[in-house]
Design a protein that fits this description.
CATH architecture: 3-Layer(aba) Sandwich
Number of helices: 11
Number of strands: 8
Structural class: alpha/beta
Number of domains: 1
CATH topology: Rossmann fold
CATH superfamily: P-loop containing nucleotide triphosphate hydrolases
Strand order of the largest sheet: 3-4-2-5-1-6-7-8
């Protein structure tokens, strides 16, 4: 049975979606069959990184949640966006389940909500129906019902934070909630570390504060900013230090 991994941050702007997309590409490059689901229904966007145009989205997560289609029909094969990264194995695939970017459908979610239990069923169905090795949940930042559900159902939770006092305080809240939900495996990735910061000291500070391992640290980098979510960073820059750091995180996730 495939594993479900929630990738979360307490605040927006941590680079969560870009990290998620690159991890999916790297995991596929390791021969895995990967699903990525955008549960940031209020402000979806990871489809842009995979090059999936809004007018080509046949069905979205919203359609499943409102009973318009089975959840697997909302899955789009975005493997071509990986280029040669997924060519090593015939099994390697990435399927993206986007949320709708239509203003009316976002408004409906904000106004009416949806059946949270249906999302739980959908996550499990995706793993089984698509024969996934891993399902990555790109969560909504902060703490809400969807986030808590994603954390509770996940086999592995990766918390992404920046070396910022607000992020430290918010991440502490998320860690406490995750522990109350009896999360199986909770690990940290510190992103956008600026020049001049003592990485060893920062790692020790985070691990002491949250009693969880830091499995990756990535620098604040101009190449990532210049890419501007135009494509998958690990595909565009396969030898970049950020990609090398994410490859280590992917290996730890598999381990």
């Amino acid at each position: 049975m495939g594993k479900i991994m929630a990738i979360h941050s307490f605040r927006g702007g941590t680079g969560k979606s870009n990290v998620t997309a690159s991890l999916a590409a790297l995991l596929a490059g390791a021969g895995k069959r990967v699903g990525v689901i955008d549960t940031d229904i209020h402000s979806p966007g990871i489809h842009v990184i995979f090059g999936l145009r809004a007018d080509r989205i046949r069905h979205s997560l919203n359609d499943y949640l409102w009973g318009r289609c089975p959840v697997h029909e909302a899955a789009h094969d975005v493997t071509p966006a990986l280029g040669e990264a997924a060519a090593a194995s015939p099994r390697a695939r990435v399927f993206l389940i986007p949320s709708s970017v239509k203003p009316g459908e976002i408004s409906r979610i904000l106004r009416e909500g949806y059946d949270i239990g249906l999302l739980t069923d959908g996550l499990r169905d995706l793993v089984a129906t698509l024969d996934l090795d891993l399902l990555l949940i790109d969560t909504h930042p902060g703490v809400n019902e969807e986030t808590l559900l994603s954390i509770a159902i996940a086999d592995f939770v990766l918390l992404i934070m920046r070396p910022d006092n607000q992020d430290f305080q918010g991440t502490a809240v998320t860690v406490e909630l995750a522990r109350q939900l009896d999360v199986h495996s909770l690990q940290l990735l510190i992103n956008k570390v600026p020049p001049g910061v003592d990485w060893d000291r920062l790692r020790l500070q985070a691990e002491a504060a949250f009693k969880a391992p830091v499995i990756g640290m990535l620098p604040l980098d101009g190449d990532m900013a210049r890419l501007a979510s135009e494509s998958i960073f690990a595909v565009r820059h396969p030898t970049h230090p950020i990609t090398q750091g994410l490859a280590q995180v992917a290996a730890r996730m598999l381990g």
